Amino acid sequence: MIPLPPSPLPRRAASLAPRLLALGTLAALGGCDTVVMNPAGDVAVQQSSLIVWSVVLMLLIIVPVMALTVLFAWRYRETNTEATYEPDWDHSTGLELVIWSAPLLIIIALGALTWVATHTLDPYRPLARTAPGRPVTATDRPLEVQVVSLDWKWLFIYPEQGIATVNELVVPVNRPVKFTMTSSSVMNALWVPAMAGMVYTMPGMETVLHGVLNRTGTFAGRSGNYSGAGFSHMTFWTHSVSPARFERWAEGVKRNRWRLDTASYLKLEQPSEKVPPLGFGSVDPTLFRRVVAICVKPGTDCMQGMSHAGPAVNDRAPRAGEAKGALTRDPSEKGESPHLSAPHGQAPGQNDPGSGSNRNMTQLQLPAPLRADASKEA
User: Fold this and answer.
1) What number of CA atoms fall less than 13 Å from residue 81's CA on the CB side?
2) Nearest Cα to 314, choosing from 301, 323, 324?
3) Cβ neighbours for 276, distance < 8 A, ≥ 6 positions apart
4) Strand partners, 155
5) Cα–Cα dist 108/6, whole Å
6) Which of 4, 108, 230, 315 has its CA 20 to 30 A from that of 92?
7) What are the tens digits of pLDDT across the range 14-26?
């Protein structure tokens, strides 16, 4: 790997690491085969096929209707005296069958295609194959990448390798990748069009996306959800490399002396733009879980269980002298509190039509300028 020279962060993030090394040149990772909106992975190929087939099925009704519109307008034009004139014609069983059956069959086909594809391409569903005829076996472990969307940059943590990168993603070719994602502040969306679909990242929650790249190269990645002033620069490159090159790249990042811990993360999450690719040679293994629980800052209570099927939120045990929370109480310990806003006694004027508490809008006397002039309104 050929390292780039040290590149300073923007002014807001300069205090983090003025000498962090960039991960490497694109040439060192296999060239600059930049591909945008061109499927390079099996998931993206299936999504592309779904879009193409959906468009084709819809064109089966759109094209004939557009063609017949032009044909009818020409055939039954006023100057065509040879066209059949049937002013009393109002029904054709054959035409009714075509008009109703064709769209119905197309809708059924679209529904079936979408239903199957929606379940097959569920981003939370582990990949069953990496390519046609190449099923995923029990020994094919996906590469886990923990993703944190920051303002305005991307943090990628590789728990298996014990490293982390900023604004650069490197994955082995033909190996399933499992992205576990969250956000440090506002909602965002991880999007590598050539690899897979787009899934949102949200603070305090954990979302999942599975994908794979089937050829080596460099592919564009970006945020798919507007998140403020630095959104347009919230981009990164995804490098698909051979397994051997991936291992060499990971070893190269490990040699970086910078560690991603609580202190460095709190500096990194500060808003900054146009951040160059950075590498961290070691990572606090509990950092991502604390980011999800929104308790990276020391002394902050962790918000647990915001991900799917997790435990209750704020389910920690009560501290000494603290009242037990409702989530940790037994049902027999829960009572009813008084309804402070409920009216006490009968409302005044409820049964007295002449009471001032009752506003009879039908007898409301408006000032003269606001009354409508019946003669002008007629």
Assistant:
1) 0
2) 301
3) 4, 7, 9, 22, 167
4) 148, 166
5) 58
6) 108
7) 333 333 333 443 3
